[in-house]
Write a structure and sequence with these properties.
By secondary structure, the chain is an alpha/beta fold. It is built from twelve helices and nine strands. Helix content is 45%, strand content 13%.
């Protein structure tokens, strides 16, 4: 007997000990007796057809689709939590996140959000997306590496410990220093991931203005990075790499599914293993 879609979502939440499904994750098409799944960062009709041809019972997307892509901005509140924890005044943090949410909400009105879900329904394919729980797992893996460092270590040491994580070591887009110098001190670090998306210029600026020496994003818009650099903000900006970061949490999810007896096909994912020992 295989799993049902509710059990798959629970396995995703259990990666990080959460009980509630965040707004950027959802069961889009329910299914039962699931024994084989395709897992991919992004899912369109093409991935659904591939899964059907390979005899899969369900598809698991990482990035939001359908209703979760419209409700995506609902998880951005974690940016406020991170900033306040790092000494940013609450009013300033809330204002920056309000702008970030509004931009994303407006942009979401351009989304053609129903097509992939409807395709899954036509194909009779169960469909789930699990985003923030997988990213939170990745955040904790990266954070454990950062904690091996001292504040007077330099940025090159930070890049070195992050590259010990298989997904970052094996990625074509290896961790990159976008702003700063590898000889700079790491100092106080803000790991800004698992909050939906990066905080862009406004959030990074607040960190720098409140004595954070090193910000770590998965990625950033090049225009935002150029703006920070042009304003000569004193600090370092490290980019982990989007696919490598997402692969960490997806690999952990796939490993847990396999431990539950479900065969997984990992499409486009950088290799890594988080099987229980």
């Amino acid at each position: 007997m295989g799993l049902d879609t509710a059990e798959i979502m629970t396995i995703g939440l259990n990666l990080v000990g959460w009980k509630k499904t965040p707004s950027d994750s959802a069961i889009h098409i329910r299914g039962r007796n699931i024994r084989k799944v395709l897992i991919s960062v992004d899912v369109t009709t093409a991935e659904l057809l591939l899964a059907k041809n390979m005899g899969c019972d369900a598809v698991i997307a990482h990035h939001p689709i359908g209703v979760s892509s419209i409700k995506f901005h609902g998880v951005f509140g974690r940016h406020t939590e991170y900033m306040v924890e790092n000494g940013v005044p609450k009013y300033a943090a809330r204002n920056a996140v309000r702008v970030l949410k509004r931009r994303t909400q407006i942009r979401s009105h351009a989304n053609i959000y129903g097509q992939t879900v409807q395709s899954a329904k036509i194909l009779g394919m169960a469909l789930v997306n699990i985003h923030q729980p997988c990213d939170e797992f990745m955040r904790r893996v990266v954070l454990a590496k950062i904690r091996e460092l001292k504040t007077d270590d330099n940025v090159s040491a930070l890049l070195k410990v992050i590259r010990e994580i298989p997904e970052f070591r094996n990625a074509v887009t290896r961790p990159l220093l976008a702003i700063g110098n590898t000889k700079n001190r790491v100092g106080r670090v803000a790991l800004v991931v698992a909050a939906g998306t990066n905080g862009g210029y406004l959030v990074a600026k607040l960190y720098y203005e409140n004595n954070i020496s090193t910000i770590i994003y998965l990625h950033i818009d090049p225009g935002d990075a150029a703006k920070l650099k042009a304003e000569k903000m004193r600090g370092n900006l490290v980019l982990l790499g989007h696919l490598a970061g997402d692969s960490v949490g997806i690999n952990a999810l796939a490993d847990r599914l396999e431990e539950s007896g479900v065969e997984t096909i990992r499409l486009g994912i950088i290799a890594g293993s988080y099987k229980k020992r």
